[in-house]
Amino acid sequence: MEKQVTVVVVGGGIVGVATAMALAPRVRVKLLEAEVQLAAHQTGHNSGVIHSGLYYLPGSLKARTCTAGRRALYEFCQRHGVPFERCGKVVVATGKEQIPRLEALEQRGRANGLAGLRRLSAEEIAELEPHARGVAGLFVAETGIVDYVAVTRAFADQLRRHGGEIVTGARVTRLFHFPREVVARTAAGEFRGDFLVGCAGLQSDRLARLAGLDPGVRIVPFRGEYYEVVRERRHLVRNLIYPVPDPTFPFLGVHFTRRINGTVEAGPNAVLALKREGYRRTSFSLRDTLATLTYPGFWRLAGRYARTGLGEVWRSWNKGAFVAALQELLPEISPGDLHGYGAGVRAQALGRDGKLLDDFHLVEGERQLHVLNAPSPAATASIAIGRTIAERVLDRLA
User: Fold this and answer.
1) How far apart are the C-alpha atoms of 132 and 116, rounded to whole Å?
2) Based on C-alpha coordinates, what's the Rg of the chain?
3) Domain ranges of the chain
4) Rounded to whole angstroms, how far apart are CA atoms 122 and 339?
């Protein structure tokens, strides 16, 4: 099969480029990206954390690919000179009522094979993060930090080295299926291939429908907003400080993250975005808003998390409330210690039953495969996800 067939990959985020990179040694690859640069959306607004796999259900695709992907990512960065740091993180239980959840988290981490996982007393938390406060904690040694835009560029270099073609400014407007080929019509022209892989992130459900498939889910965008800690107060955070997740809420909660460039982020919260690529509080798209509000699954979700969701909205618009949430982990932080505003938008797949898909979700059709849900830790797991998708595609083409 080598180089006798062509695969068109739609989407130039880290998962799309990793998939194209995995395919390129075996087949011809054409990667189409709607924007003028790679990693423009979820990848480019990522926190930069290399996740350990602590939170994920043992045996799930997410857990397996996170473990394999983390190891592969560290190895790739080492080999190709992409700066990274295996710094570890501290998960802090701020009250005794959280200790059972912390213990369950530790058990899950051990089931996922994490090395260097260690329970912490209040005194041991202070040794690692002197300004954090908690009654107990976990040290997660395998967590790290990296710049995922730099990783994506390095993936792209490997893709090109194997003869792959990258076309930016190529938003797909039509898809055609013929007995022997797939044709993608874009703003940059038509591209033909034997198989199509959709890694379109925030537009993934629309791309699947454009291809004639029923994705079975709808992408509902959630904006995660964060502040940056001012330079003079960065010493409050040595590495990463995380809360014990609330099992009644599908998102992690605010935390502190040191970036590979030395800056420190505080957040994010999680609020419904009214535009799929909307990175400001005022961002709005009538099409995207109607797509969310007319979907029955959204109202079932809203009914389940109404109080928590309103709290997230309040913290979005009230800096004092945002800081109060941060102070549960780091009491010394104050409004004056935070400046700027940043955000990312998560492409969350939602079922008609109102349940958020937690695991990776792939949908296949004739001569095509689409990634319909790639939540965190997709960036960490990208090499493993790319290899998994590539094997499925090659099996289909065999």
Assistant:
1) 21
2) 21
3) 6-46+149-216+359-397, 89-141, 218-356
4) 29
- Measured in whole angstroms, the distance separating CA 196 from the mean position of its chain's CA atoms is 22
Strand (E) or helix (H) holding 68: helix 61-80
Contact between 186 and 172 under an 8 Å Cβ cutoff? The reply is yes
Best CATH choice for the domain 6-46+149-216+359-397 from the list 3.50.50.60, 3.10.100.10, 2.60.120.10, 1.10.3720.10: 3.50.50.60
Residue 195 is given by DSSP the state E
Distance CA 328, CA 332 (A): 10
Distances (CA, A) of 140 to 115, 120, 272: 8, 10, 30
Indicate the helix (H) or strand (E) that contains 388: helix 382-397
CATH topology of domain 218-356: D-Amino Acid Oxidase; Chain A, domain 2 (3.30.9)
The closest alpha carbon to 114, from 47, 45, 67, belongs to: 67
What is the full per-residue pLDDT of the chain (398 aa) written as tens digits? 567 899 999 999 999 999 999 999 999 999 999 999 999 999 999 999 999 999 998 988 899 999 999 999 999 999 999 999 999 999 999 999 999 999 999 999 999 999 999 999 999 999 999 999 999 999 999 999 999 999 999 999 999 999 999 999 999 999 998 989 999 999 999 999 999 999 999 999 999 999 999 999 999 999 999 999 999 999 999 999 999 998 767 678 899 999 999 999 999 999 999 999 999 999 999 999 999 999 999 999 999 999 888 999 999 999 999 999 999 999 999 999 999 989 999 999 999 999 999 889 999 999 999 999 998 899 999 999 999 999 999 999 98
pTM: predicted TM-score of the whole model, two decimal places = 0.96
